[in-house]
Amino acid sequence: MAFSAVAHLCVRLGFAKRDVYQATSAFAALSDELRTRAHRRVFDQIVHSGNRGKARRIEAWIRTT
């Protein structure tokens, strides 16, 4: 997931953790919405099926940094 790399870089570059966390949460919410609206095959090609777990791990990592 490329978003995890972006979140990691933002934290390391000094962006406010709150902003990175909010962006991660918004990304997770939007991908959940896409999951409900798109065909499963299409969703898996765009976002991949393990997205929810990755988003939770990113949020947990941001909280501990």
Count the strands?
0
Main β-sheet description: none
Mean pLDDT: 85
Structural class: mainly alpha
Q: First CA to last CA: what distance?
A: 20 Å
Shape: elongated
The ordered H/E elements are HHHH
* Helix content bin: over 70%
Q: How large is the radius of gyration?
A: 12 Å
Count the helices. How many? 4
Verbal overview:
The structure is a single chain. With 65 residues, the protein is mostly helical. It has one domain. Helices cover 82% and strands 0% of the residues. It contains 4 helices and no strands. The longest helix has 21 residues, at 17-37. The mean pLDDT is 85.
Topology:
Blueprint: H1 2-12, H2 17-37, H3 40-46, H4 51-64
Name the features.
65 residues; mainly alpha; elongated
In summary, what is this structure?
The protein is mainly alpha-helical and 65 residues long. The protein contains 4 helices and no strands. The chain has one domain.
